[in-house]
Write a sequence for this structure.
């Protein structure tokens, strides 16, 4: 489910995993139990995985022409097995196998349950069945999805990726919709090869275009050219072998990695050499190169190839709720404990390292949202989702996914958390606001901290042991005490038992352990500080003098801060207080109502409005912050208060901080004036009353505005409710549209089959006519009523027949035969045939 956020960034599983015994899932993640149990039957030994490439071809509308063109171009000795998956009418018998067979000399059969695939054979999906592959054998199940929502191509492609790994080849041909795109992504993640038909050559370009735009088709070309490229690619389907020890090979690999590092800024040296080599070999095959040093020179001369190779190593393979049982354990056994004690205002922090296009991050957000709704919890959720691939992060931020996610997301969750669009589904704003996406290299950039949950699945399997140990230490440092680490079943923390204890070994959920080893983990995760001064590390007077000087400086700074520094608070950009210095009581006080540490809410009197305006205006850049002045009433007296906002920036924080300083202005000496006259005192009181009246009016206006705002909010909620109802109606219409589209695709397929059958019958009729014309014996064909249906040219020598006599009774036609009642003979033959008797006829010679 992961794409590595370090340089190799691959999110595929290295090999297929056996599913739980006796289970069969429509998602294709568990096609058959390892024991090979058959539904409703006895267990049988599972066949071994195929040792040759398996090509899966998927198409829907317009696919018959593409299938025929492909198999006409396939040589008989290519050494691959071919599986044809199409959208078929579930209630109509298919002749797709016959159509494919006419285009090739390879044997084509309809797939049956348990049939082991063999090279140079073609297997066609039967109607109204889901097709998967497990241990090299085809598995048939009854569809679980209703008609119109089935994705048979994605289903088989996914199972093929799990079962065959690098020997899987996926091909998407003509069709409408997006079926096959997610399946190609799974094949890419498993190390396989993917093809898509050129949209301009496809009868319907919906499916190929979807795969191409998503970036999951490594080769885009006409159907006729695919077999030849497959022959070249098949050279890379060799068994895995260790890195050749030849110095030239090592030097060539180093040159390639150096070029990638120089052009992209990412280092691949800590990734498993076998994985990197296989990816590089795939690119070398495309350019007919066999030497790593030559390919390194090719990279330097063609900068575009560097980006292609980089993307080849950054395969985005993920899906919603991948390994559903693991997410069920996370939802039922882990998240409730992590959320226990979370009160209103607290934050649940999670990190998804290697998020790819965001499906896993949104899956965790869905689980948290459901838990909060179920238990009436109210706290903030902040999920940090990071990845090395900028393009994948950009797609994750958009939150738009193809219609095929219905295979992974339940209808209830689709309705609750997604909005149906013409091109698929989009994550709702409620869920999107819970996730923050960013580009990050987990091997180089510092980790997030104080995390409740950290998910990193199918990432470490591509790293060398040294990099794995570094990541595990970094993850322990990032998690809070009692935090949970979520890995894939192919990964483990077995070498760090002193840092983590297992919660669920099967689905690799671990909890942090506080121990002496945590100090070592902290050193491994956090860069070491700069070395101390040489004198400090040596004995003698120098080592004694240094601590004393540091203590004097520290004591002096503290005394100066206490005596002369103004009262200050350090806040974040939203005004939430992080640190308080000095006595802030004259300026701040606990706000009435719900407790808060926001400096604006805690400000006294007129200072609150000025602070709010200052935060809204933003911080000055490149110049001294202005000092603001405000008249503040404290204990019945009026004081002049100065305050200013200073920007702060810490290296370990991505967002900045704000230092707010408060200072009471020095009192000015009273001017030499005489006693205040009663008239002046009356004017002052009048002005004070007018000011108080204005304040009351302003307060009333603000209250009225707040009431109006509440009414607008209420109206907005009603409009949102109405909008949701309209969206629900629109979803129902979209579902009906999809069903009609699916039926239309099936009708197009059936129509193409019927058209093929008509052409076949026309050819047979022409052959029959030519046969009759070439036979010297005259022949007349009659129906049960002895009416003429057809006659040969020689028959006109005996009967005076013309073309318009077809359909007339034979009795109406005059014959040149003498001494034979041919009509009576015909009646007798008709009687015998009706009773099931055999052949009937007599030979006569026409009268000259």
């Amino acid at each position: 489910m992961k794409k590595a956020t370090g340089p190799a960034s691959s999110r595929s599983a290295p090999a297929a995993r056996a599913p739980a015994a006796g289970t069969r899932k429509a998602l294709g993640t568990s096609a058959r139990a390892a024991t090979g149990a058959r539904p409703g039957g006895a267990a049988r030994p599972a066949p071994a995985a195929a040792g040759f490439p398996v090509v899966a071809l998927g198409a829907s509308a317009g696919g018959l022409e593409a299938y025929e063109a492909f198999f006409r171009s396939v040589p008989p000795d290519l050494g691959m097995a071919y599986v044809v998956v199409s959208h078929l009418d579930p209630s109509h018998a298919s002749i797709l196998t016959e159509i494919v067979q006419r285009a090739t000399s390879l044997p084509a059969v309809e797939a049956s349950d348990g049939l082991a695939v063999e090279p140079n054979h073609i297997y066609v999906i039967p109607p109204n069945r889901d097709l998967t592959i497990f241990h090299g054998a085809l598995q048939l199940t009854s569809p679980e999805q209703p008609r119109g929502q089935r994705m048979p191509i994605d289903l088989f492609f996914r199972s093929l990726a799990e079962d065959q790994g690098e020997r899987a080849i996926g091909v998407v041909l003509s069709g409408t919709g997006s079926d096959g795109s997610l399946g190609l992504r799974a094949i890419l993640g498993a190390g396989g090869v993917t093809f898509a038909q050129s949209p301009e050559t496809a009868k319907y370009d919906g499916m190929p275009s979807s795969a191409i735009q998503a970036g999951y088709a490594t080769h885009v070309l006409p159907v006729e050219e695919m077999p030849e490229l497959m022959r070249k690619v098949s050279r890379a389907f060799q068994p895995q072998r260790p890195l050749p020890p030849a110095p030239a090979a090592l030097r060539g690999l180093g040159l390639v990695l150096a070029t990638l590092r120089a052009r992209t800024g990412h280092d691949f040296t800590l990734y498993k050499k076998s994985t990197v080599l296989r990816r590089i070999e795939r690119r070398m095959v495309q350019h007919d190169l066999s030497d790593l040093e030559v390919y390194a020179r090719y990279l330097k001369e063609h900068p575009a190839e560097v980006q292609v190779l980089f993307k080849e190593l950054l395969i985005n393979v993920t899906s919603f709720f991948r390994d559903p049982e693991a997410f069920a354990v996370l939802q039922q056994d882990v998240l409730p404990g992590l959320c226990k004690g979370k009160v209103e205002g607290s934050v649940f922090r999670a990190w998804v390292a290697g998020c790819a296009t965001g499906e896993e991050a949104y899956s965790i957000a869905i689980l948290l949202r459901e838990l909060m709704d179920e238990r009436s919890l109210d706290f903030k959720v902040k999920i940090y989702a990071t990845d090395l691939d900028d393009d994948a992060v950009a797609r994750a931020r958009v939150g738009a996914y193809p219609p095929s996610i219905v295979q992974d997301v339940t209808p209830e969750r689709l309705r609750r958390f997604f909005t149906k669009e013409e091109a698929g589904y989009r994550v709702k704003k409620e869920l999107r606001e819970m996730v923050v996406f960013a580009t990050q290299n987990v091997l180089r950039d510092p980790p997030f901290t104080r995390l409740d949950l950290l998910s990193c699945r199918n990432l470490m399997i591509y790293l060398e042991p040294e990099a794995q140990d570094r990541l595990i230490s970094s993850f322990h440092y990032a998690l809070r005490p009692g935090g949970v680490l979520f890995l894939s079943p192919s990964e483990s923390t077995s070498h760090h038992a002193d840092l983590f204890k297992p919660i669920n070994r099967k689905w690799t959920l671990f909890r942090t352990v506080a121990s002496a080893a945590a100090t070592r983990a902290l050193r491994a995760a956090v860069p070491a500080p700069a070395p101390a001064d040489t004198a400090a590390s040596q004995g003698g007077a120098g080592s004694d003098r240094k601590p004393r000087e540091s203590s004097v400086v520290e004591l002096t700074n503290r005394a100066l801060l206490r005596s002369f520094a103004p009262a200050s608070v350090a806040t974040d950009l939203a005004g939430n207080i992080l640190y308080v210095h000095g006595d802030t009581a004259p300026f701040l006080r606990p706000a009435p109502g719900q407790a808060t540490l926001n400096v604006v809410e805690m400000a006294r009197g007129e200072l609150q409005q000025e602070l709010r305006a200052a935060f809204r205006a933003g911080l000055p850049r490149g110049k001294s912050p202005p000092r603001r002045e405000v008249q503040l009433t404290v204990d019945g007296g009026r004081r002049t208060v100065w305050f200013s906002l200073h920007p702060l920036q810490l290296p370990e924080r991505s967002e900045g901080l704000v230092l707010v300083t408060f200072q009471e202005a020095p009192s000015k000496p009273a001017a030499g004036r005489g006693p205040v006259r009663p008239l002046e005192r009356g004017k002052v009181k009048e002005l004070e009353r007018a000011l108080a009246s204005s304040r009351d009016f302003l307060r009333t206006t603000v209250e009225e505005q707040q009431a109006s705002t509440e009414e607008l909010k209420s109206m907005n909620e009603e409009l949102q409710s109405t909008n949701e109802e309209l969206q629900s109606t629109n979803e129902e219409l979209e579902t009906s549209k999809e069903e009609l589209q699916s039926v239309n695709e099936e009708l197009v397929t059936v129509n193409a089959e019927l058209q093929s059958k008509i052409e076949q019958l026309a050819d047979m009729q022409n052959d029959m006519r030519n046969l009759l014309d070439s036979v010297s014996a005259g022949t007349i064909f009659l129906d049960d009523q002895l009416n003429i249906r057809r006659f040969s040219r020689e028959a006109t020598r005996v009967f005076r027949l013309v073309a318009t006599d077809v359909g007339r009774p034979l009795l109406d036609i005059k014959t040149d035969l003498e001494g034979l009642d041919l009509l009576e003979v015909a009646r007798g033959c008709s009687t015998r045939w009706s009773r099931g008797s055999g052949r009937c006829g007599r030979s006569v010679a026409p009268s000259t």
